[in-house]
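dumping this here before i forget
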Amino acid sequence: MRNLLKFIFLFSIVFTIKCKKEKDPTFSITEKQVGKLKKESLVRDLELIYTEDSIVTDTVRGNFGRGSSKINIFEKGGKHLLILTPSTDSIATIENVQIKDPRYTTVNGIGINSTFKDIKEKYTIRKVITSLNNVLILIKDSDVYFTIDKKELPENLRYNNTNIEAVQIPDIAKIKYMMIGWDY
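structure:
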């Protein structure tokens, strides 16, 4: 009897610890999923996926038969969650997801309120692409990528058209956009 009580006690402790470690997947970003949205989800299924939320599309483009260029997902109450870009395939899937809500984080804890230092500490940077107004940060072995506004850079790099390297980006640089690009 005493051994049975010890076993029940130990089992309950292990079960309690395991339950506390599990993260709510509602705002989790993984390689195959962004919250409720899965990589293989079809555009036509968005109404089923986001039954609790509001979906806003560009109705003018939709009425002319070319499909919507962007699909905005809002939480009931108005909080902007995501901007989705559908593919142009006959059976449309989602090509790009822009994160608008800071509750969405990667498995490494990176979200839109993170800094460049956070990205460097949690990921290996594959490539830095310089554009006119932004710097794009591509992550190795990940579909997640980040945009940093050149306004976050030192003044001598803001108006320069030369390639910017990761070591030139300040640790405190804020993320302008956080995107997931699902290539097929």
